[in-house]
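=== RUN LOG ===
request id: a7f3
mode: sequence -> structure
chains: 1
length: 210
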Amino acid sequence: MMLTANLNCKIDLQKVENAYNNQTKYNPNKFCGLIFRICAPKCTVTIHSTGSVIVLGVKSKKAGIRVIQKVCKYLERIDYKASITDVNVKTVTYAGVLPFNVNLNEVSMHFSKRCSYHPELFNGLRLKIPKTNGVMSIFHTGSFYVTGIKQKCIVNRIVGEIINEIESIHGNGKPKLVDESLLRNDNSHVVDDSSIADCINIQGSGEYIL
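=== RESULT ===
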């Protein structure tokens, strides 16, 4: 998940880097922002001299606000008076794993009008989700990512519909399972209308690399 916010103060990024050089990275010749690494929860905060911040890698808005509050405390120690406003969720990435392998060639033919599959360039299939700005990336192992949709309830419904179509593509028999014990012993991995949400989680960790 990525959040943005405003700290309502001008910040000398070099001063912050000097004070917390073991947690920060600042190279104005390459990037105008300062990267502040937070350990708990593991995420990164990009701070700009204008006071705007970007939080990358948290799993909820509440966790993101706590991270920004932690950054404010760091800034208070070096004489900045920051106040948090304009907190907005910008993007959310959902990740999950289906309990079966996926034949991407067959899926690409079935969804030919709204998918992109070029295995020589990218080993996953990108599927546009109608009536949204969302994209679902599916891999042959059954793992998938959904981006461009903020509401998890919508993701649950859409993933459920796509799974039903993928199962129909495989025919009447069950798709090949990655591990048959997933269905026999761990009901949280059984993909049906009542448990589809169990295989979807908000993707957490993320870092900028300069």
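=== NOTES ===
The chain is about 25% helix and 25% strand.
Residues 7 and 84 are 5 Å apart (CA to CA).
=== END ===
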